[in-house]
Amino acid sequence: MTRRAPAILAVLAFVLSCSAFAQAPSSSGIHLGEGRLHPFLEVDGRYDSLVGFFITPTTPSGDIIIHARPGLKFDLQNPSTYVAFNGSAEYLFYTGLISPGARNLSRFQANVALDARFNQDGAVEVTVGDTLTRSDRTQNAAVGVGVLSLFNDIRLSLPIHPGGRALEITPKVSWQVEFFDPLLTGNVSGCTNTNDITCNPALVSKMNYSNVNFGVNGKWKFLPKTAVVLDIATDVRTYFDPTAALNPPATLFRAQAGIMGLISPRISVTL
Q: Which has the closest alpha carbon to 5: 103, 97, 99?
């Protein structure tokens, strides 16, 4: 650590300067029709106290990580249309100044989000959206090893609000898929069952899944400040490798109903 101290201090100074640069005020963007396009580049760094166990199987290892994140934002809004796009690619550079073995964790990630609403001022509105992420943050709580997750969620809904919008019914459907890759190879320390997905990183792809969600939301404002609400949803979860243990397909159902109202401008009640 003593020999690496000058390099660590230099990286920290670079991190601080880059973080300040990344937070500079953005310009008004580039006009594209009624919308604005904002290219951006963010560079920042951080110290992570537990990037892995590179010294001994029980000693947490930390490291300094540099993030470089170029991307685009696009916004368009008028009475009938709303479009918001935010997409970025990201490279995580593990410097290895504290834990040399952490350099193998350097990788590309991505985060893309699109939300659009059309015919907002009409009786039938169309809402579409998509979210795509590649990161080490998974939607699957059963994964017990370090993974890279490629997750995509595409959504469609049709808010129906005739007349004065006292009544609104929104049928919706969405589809999520998630694919897994191991961050590093080798069994998890302390695991002896090499056929266990949560012990053997080589098996994480057996958790790849597809989830289809069908639902409907409803709201009826029967008084100026009081409404009946309804939310019904069904999830159909299947796995691309149904032979793997821990992967039973499932159909889940959820329904909520109640009343929402305002007692005063600052106090509301939900039953």
A: 97
Give the pLDDT score at 224.
85
Instruction: Tell me the C-alpha distance between 79 and 190, whole Å.
Output: 59
Q: Is the distance from CB of 180 to CB of 148 less than 8 angstroms?
A: yes
3-state SS of 34-74 is CEEEEEEEEEEEEEEEEEEEEEECCEEEEEEEEEEEEEEEE
CA-based torsion, 198, 141, 204, 106: positive or negative: negative
Q: How many residues does the chain have?
A: 271
208 residue type, one letter: N
Burial of 255 (0-12, 13-18, 19+ CB in 10 A): exposed
pTM of the model: 0.79
CA distances from 24 to 17, 69, 198 (A): 11, 15, 43
**pLDDT band at 264, cuts 50/70/90?**
confident
Is the separation of the CB atoms in 130 and 155 below 8 Å?
yes
Cβ contact 206:179 at 8 Å = no
Closest CA to 218 of 230, 234, 233, 226: 230
Tens of pLDDT, residue by residue over 102-154, are 888 899 999 999 999 999 988 999 999 999 999 888 777 666 567 889 999 99
The label of the residue with tokens 């916004």 reads 75
